[in-house]
Amino acid sequence: MWSRLLVLVLVLLPSQALAGAKERVKAIAPGALVYVMDEKGDELVAQNADKPFVPASVAKIVTAWLAVEVLGLDYRFKTSFYLDGDRKLYIRGGGDPFLISEELALLAPQLVAAIGKEPITGIVLDPSYYPADLRIPGIENTSESYDALNSALAVNFNTIAAARQGNSVVSAEPQTPITPLAISQYKVRGPKGRGRISLAQDPKLSLLYAGELIAAFIDKAGGSVKGPITIGAVPEGLEPVYVHHQSRSLAKIINQLLIGSNNYIANQVFLEIGAQRFGGPVSLDKSLKVANEMLAANGLADAIRLEEGSGISRGNSFTARGLAQVLNLFVPYAELMQGRDGGTNKTGTLSGVRTLAGYADTAKYGRVRFVISLKGNTGAMRYQLLKAIEAGL
């Protein structure tokens, strides 16, 4: 008799927990899109789970999964340097998303060691790996850093961080030398005090700024640049004298794009997916083709629709059930989503859109995969729902 009662209690407890979690979710936000599944793929909570929603930055989870599957965790972006007989330096960009000041400080001494300290007669920037007409849906022509243009050759996420000191403009970062173009652009478009602006308005400007900053680091490394900085192609037959491989592996870059939610990094990575499969130059069509093939192979063709890889476009469309399946596929790499606070989730924010997705540890069902999507600007409610899921399961 007692053994039968014990079995009955053990059977009822999980179902009661499920009912409690569903009731809490519905009470907090009856119109929310919520889906929770356990480690076995069993559905735990499903509220409007097949209704399409705009994912905002949780789209970066899909980009991260695609990237590690196609490129591999140890993949390294590269930038190639060439020197002709007149000591003119050619730089061919490879779409490195982390060509930042700290990386240039590593790069420059190795480059100077390869080419010598005799003055360089000019720098020619070759951005041909990215087509000139490349446009990412959702990127607008503003000075906001999240609207930075993607580029084959850009530094510091195609942004300038500076500050005003009286009538002067100085670098806002100790690791970044100030350059003439940075000063002029910040005076025109920067805030009154300290801040970061994108170079979205003119691709040529972003390239020239990259050239100026690389030249500044060459000078710091003991070399010198005496000639002009221009844009052009590497001459045919000229072999590289130095190829710089990004010091960060793709795993570290993925971690940074998920935690920092940088749109520029996300789409640089997304564009590389297509180029890796179909060859350069990059194109959005190539990457979308790879993405759609992989989604279809996992039964997600109708559940996950991408226009680009960062989530900045409102043309991206997911279902909560579909994104939960991607989270299940991403489980081997889940630690890449973990931030300093220990949470393993990703937020998404656009005007009128608040999303949250990731992994949560529960008492009865272990680590679950969850997706939350809300309309409106009530970001705190995402976490109320997450707490209800954790407490109820």
Summed up, what is this model?
By secondary structure, the chain is an alpha+beta fold. 37% of the residues lie in helices and 21% in strands.
Overview of the structural elements:
The chain has 2 domains: 25-73 and 252-392, Beta-lactamase; 78-248, D-Ala-D-Ala carboxypeptidase C, peptidase S13 (D-tyrosyl-trna(Tyr) Deacylase, Chain: A), CATH 3.50.80. With 393 residues, it is α+β, with helices and mostly antiparallel strands. Mean pLDDT is 92; it is low at 5-12. The longest helix is centred in the first third of the chain and has 27 residues, at 2-28. It contains 10 helices and 15 strands.
- CATH level 3 topology of the largest domain: Beta-lactamase
The assigned CATH architecture of the largest domain is 3-Layer(aba) Sandwich
Spans of at least 5 consecutive residues whose pLDDT stays below 50 are: 5-12
Tell me how many strands there are. 15
Which outline best applies? elongated
Q: On the 0-100 scale, what is the average pLDDT?
A: 92
CATH class of the largest domain: Alpha Beta
Beta-strand content: 15-25%
Radius of gyration: 24 Å
Residue share in helix: 25-40%
CATH superfamily of the largest domain: DD-peptidase/beta-lactamase superfamily
Count of folded domains: 2
Q: Decide which structural class fits the backbone.
A: alpha+beta
The major beta sheet can be summarized as: 5 strands, antiparallel
Distance between the termini: 29 Å
What is the element string, with H for helices and E for strands? HEEHEEHEEEHEHEEHHHEEHEEEH
Strand order of the largest sheet: 2-1-15-14-13
Instruction: Please report the number of helical segments.
Output: 10
